[in-house]
Amino acid sequence: MLLVSYDISNDKVRTKFAKFLSKFGFRLQYSVFEIDNSEAVLKNIETEIENIYVKSFTEEDSVIIFDMSATCKKTCYGYAKNEETDVFVIK
């Protein structure tokens, strides 16, 4: 499972990004999506973020992907605060 959290200031970009994510999963909260994980899905999401969305980010924008598999990998795009802090997952 992936959790994708985003904070995008531009309304048009934010709406487009939310519609993009809705193709893969469902919205848990306004800016958090839960997505069933597969390597292909993760690669598709990361490629789209890198090729389309990162170009339009301002210093206020960020996307964080939490890979909730055994690795618990965290990937940050944009200007996510506290990106060097550890993440603890409680099941």
Low-confidence stretches: none
Strand composition percent: 25-35%
Strand/helix succession: EHEEHEE
- Which class of secondary structure composition applies to the elements? alpha+beta
Helix content: 25-40%
Q: How would you describe the shape?
A: globular
Give me the side-by-side strand order of the main sheet: 2-3-1-4-5
* Number of β-strand runs: 5
Task: Report the span from N to C terminus.
Answer: 13 Å
Radius of gyration based on Cα positions: 12 Å
Largest sheet: 5 strands, antiparallel
Number of helices: 2
Mean pLDDT: 86
Q: Could you please describe the fold and organization of this structure?
A:
There is one protein chain. This protein has 91 residues and is of the alpha+beta class. Helices cover 30% and strands 29% of the residues. It is built from two helices and five strands, in the order E-H-E-E-H-E-E. It has helices spanning 11-22, 39-53; strands at residues 2-7, 25-29, 32-35, 62-67, 74-78. A five-stranded antiparallel β-sheet has the order 2-3-1-4-5, with helices on one face. A hairpin with a 2-residue loop joins strand 2 and strand 3.
